[in-house]
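Example 3.2
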Amino acid sequence: MINKVKIIATIGPKTANKVFLKKLEKAGMSIARLNGSHNTLLWHDTTIRLIQDVLPNIPILFDIPGKKIRTIQLKHEPKFNKGDKIVLTTDQSFDGSIKVPVNNLNLHLSLSKNDIILADDGTLKFTVINVQNKDIICKAESSGQLKSAKGINVPYVNVKGPLITERDRKLISFCKRNKVDFIGISFVESAAHVEKIRKLIKVQCPRIVAKVENSNGLKNVDEIAQAADVIMIDRGDLSTETDLENLAIYQKEIIKSASAYSKPVIVATEMLHTMIENPIPTKAEVMDISNAVIDGASATMLSGETAIGKYPTESIKIMKKVSDSIIFNSNKGSNKTIDIPEAIGKSIVQLCNMLPITKIITLTISGYAARMISSEFPRQPILAVSNDKMAARSFNILQGTKGIYVDVKFRKDSLEHVMECLEILWKRKEIKKSDCILITSLAYPNKGRRMNNIQTYYVSDLINNLKWK
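Structure, written as tokens:
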């Protein structure tokens, strides 16, 4: 059975074997993800081949680090208390015991005193005390431990560095060589960034997953959605790079922008985070998955839950169960048919929201069509045209509607009367040359039938083609 909402599972040390991969697929995994920020290229090469061999029909998404700042692989992962001094450095000769090196060699050039640094998806917070050469001296604002390959965020600071790093180029070549299906690009901030990646790829696949995870990405989400193949909402970095309290709003806005360009959206980060250690999710996590599906997510993603967690298959089963339930309940009653006029009325409002329609014109004897459209509250004015004088006058009670009488026979065997009425409206200056109009009428009816026809025109085209004078 095809999953309506796709489930992306991150493959890690625990699940990178034949037995587990088959279990994950059976549980509902739709796409296998590998995180290029962790492990060696040799491990990834072996794992890609394993997935392609065991699950040949499962696409692979490979995330490359891009501009994402991380701690490097540390021999010593320092623990600290609130108020302690901790030194980050761009000198990568240190092992973490004295200073903690990061992968961005320019970070010290971008920071100054009192800047805030967040680590490990915002769970750790530091304040910059001073910057000395390549060292960033910080005060810990909370107790914790800074581990290897953990993300570093500096909200609202424009960190210097190339848009595409040499490591990015190497990983893109690696993905092409290994026939990976999707490449995830971190911290995408513009369509230009996407196009530069596309030029490096040169071929149709791998397709580009643009990760929106900072304020510039949010600001330019429309152009990014237009340029990329898929959008990913990385809520970990997005919450630390912007405002945590607005995260739900940002999620909805990004999905809406992507939907406008018919691009699928992946919602990621901590969807079932507690299931790394526990077999049962929290109610908040169930609500989170539900809301992502309701918002219109094409896919939801599991990270640590399936890469290193104790319950990888259970996590996928729970995510699938929740997603399926939301889809099922959303579709209840959706198979119920409505009559043609009601459907036409609802469709007209949708068309008027998508097209530059300036006036809605309905040709109606009784006023039924005018009532149906008016009840949907379109923003455009409605001109309700009838050949019954009293009926036309009565239409003026309808919201946003003007009743207009015309002495025209409404034919059953043709639509000639439609153009006759439109020419009369033009001559009476009810419609103008600059208008874009939508007309609904009853075409070729039998007894009891109501509006079944929609047409759209630029009035200027009618004037020119029909030689109105």
